[in-house]
Amino acid sequence: MLLLFFGGCSQTELVETIVTDNDGVLHRILEKADKNTLVIFDCDEVLITPTDTLFSPVNEDNYKKAIQYLNKKVGFSRADDILIDIRKRYKFRLLNNGLPKIVKKMQTRGVSILVLTSHWTGEFHNIKSVEDLRKNELNQFDFDFKKSWNNVDKIVFYELPTKLPRYNVTRYPIFENGIIFACNLDKGDVLQKFLNRISRKFDKIIFVDDKMKNIRSIERFCKKNNIEGKCIQYKKAELFNKNKANLQELERELNKIIDSHGFN
Ligand SMILES: [Mg+2]
């Protein structure tokens, strides 16, 4: 079990961060959430994770090599087509089987629950709204994040335009049905805009993410807004075996996929 504490962690500390891969530690923190708490989950590597990791972002080394190889072989636009195709074929599973029930219990207690993902929005290749991929991936599991936000309609954050890397197009973060798609912007900045738009106030934030960069962002948000923060860097995904492949294996698999797209 991995459990580290940052900061002074004294009673007077406004923001406290822990690092853990242990479900029990996470569950005990979530059990304490009350009506005035906003609980925020990252999606990738916190709620769900792909089961086939050969080319998935979970296996960072392979994923980077695959992108480089595809870019070199077919150019970045076709490479993106192929990556989307690979992603559509991913099967996902829960990272923590207890979470759907725990989320439901918290919602019954009146706790507000939000998903804050870095995922992009808008049109991409042949997909009208790329955020639909993420929605479909989450829909397979027994979560209902809309439940806490029945009175909040879809929000497009036009005040936060951002450019999709390598494409000269502008994208905007979106809130819909309890999920914020942050378009890779600073999560604290997007959360700030979201809370500015809704009428609810919270005394405390519990934030769960696998990336320290995002934890730091929400720590800054809490300090700036004088909100008590409990951040958990949840590293359970690191416990799973990664499907390591050598470069030749990877290239062989990628060549098959390139052929199936008729790009050779
Ligand atoms: Mg993540």
- Judged by helices, strands and strand pairing, the structural class is alpha/beta
Ligands in the model, by name, code or SMILES, are: magnesium ion
Mean pLDDT: 90
Report the C-alpha radius of gyration, rounded.
19 Å
Strand tally: 13
Largest sheet: 9 strands, mixed
Overall spatial form: globular
Looking at the overall shape, the CATH architecture is 3-Layer(aba) Sandwich
Low-confidence stretches: none
CATH structural fold name:
Rossmann fold
Please summarize what this structure is.
The chain has helices at about 25-30, 60-75, 75-90, 100-110, 130-140, 185-195, 210-225, 245-260, and strands spanning about 5, 15-20, 35-40, 50, 90-95, 110-115, 155, 160-165, 170, 175, 180, 205-210, 230-235.
Task: State the main characteristics.
single chain; alpha/beta; Rossmann fold; nine-stranded mixed β-sheet; 36% helix; binds magnesium ion
Report on the architecture of this protein.
- The protein has helices spanning 23-31, 60-74, 76-89, 99-108, 131-139, 187-197, 212-225, 247-260; strands at residues 3-6, 15-20, 37-41, 48-50, 92-94, 112-117, 155-156, 162-163, 170-171, 174-176, 179-181, 204-209, 228-234.
- The N and C termini lie far apart (47 Å).
- Helices cover 36% and strands 20% of the residues.
- The strands form 3 sheets. The chain has a 9-stranded mixed beta sheet with strand order 1-2-13-12-3-6-11-10-7, sandwiched between helices. Strands 4-5 form a two-stranded antiparallel sheet.
- With 264 residues, the protein is α/β, with parallel strands linked by helices.
- The protein binds magnesium ion (MG).
